[in-house]
Amino acid sequence: MNIILFGPPGAGKGTQSKNLAKKFNLFNISSGDLLRDEIKNNSKLGNKISSIINEGSLVSDNIVNDLIRKILNNEKYKNRLIFDGYPRNLQQTKNLDLLLEKNKQNITCVISLDVDKNTIIKRILGRQNCSNCGQVFNKHFNPSNQESHSCDPKFLQKRSDDNQQIVESRFDTYLGKTLPILDFYKEKKILHKINGMNEIDAIFVEICDIIASLETWLCNAYLYK
Are residues 63 and 140 in the same domain? Predict the structure, then answer.
């Protein structure tokens, strides 16, 4: 089973995809994490990516597609993927279809988290990452405290691209270039829309129900094939 988790920056895709990967024994593939890993390598490509992201723009399709191609060519990931943050436009969508077909795979379902712009801005500007343990908090919705976080508060950091100007630019880019993908997957009848403004646990349960129903359908289709 391969899943795409879809939604604007700050919709909660990362949190949900990591939880889903753990529950269903899948691999979480975040294009954002792949790009940030490249930046950490301090390579020429990483520096280029950093500059593009800090401007609030999207990294070129060629760069992202090459990173995704490496994942799909790896047998251990076959039909066990959750894509978070990819594809971001129709060209990437079509490229993903070609790569999947080449590797005899497909997308089982697309989950779209719908969240309004004001909520997105508040979520992202309040986001904090612990550089010591990796936990993610939000000073507005899920603040770090002694019960939930044992690390020193000095480890709580904001991502360099988490500022209002960049957030608004990324959201507008999402509306202009990424939302049309919904129509692409709607035509394939694999799109499922969810209210991304619900509580995290409620969203997780709803997604799990969708996946469970698809697993049952796939098993039945295989048995009666």
Answer: no
The total of structural domains in the chain comes to: 2
Within this chain, do residues 179 and 218 fall inside the same structural domain, yes or no? yes
| Cis peptide bond prior to 180, omega within 30° of 0 | no
Q: What is the pLDDT of residues 130-151, one digit of tens each?
A: 999 989 888 888 899 989 999 9
| Beta pairing, strands 2-6 & 109-114 | parallel
The span from the first CA to the last CA of the chain, in angstroms, equals 18
Please name which of 53, 9, 2 lies closest in space to residue 28, comparing C-alpha atoms. Answer: 2
Query: Looking at the structure, do residues 71 and 137 belong to the same domain, yes or no?
Result: no
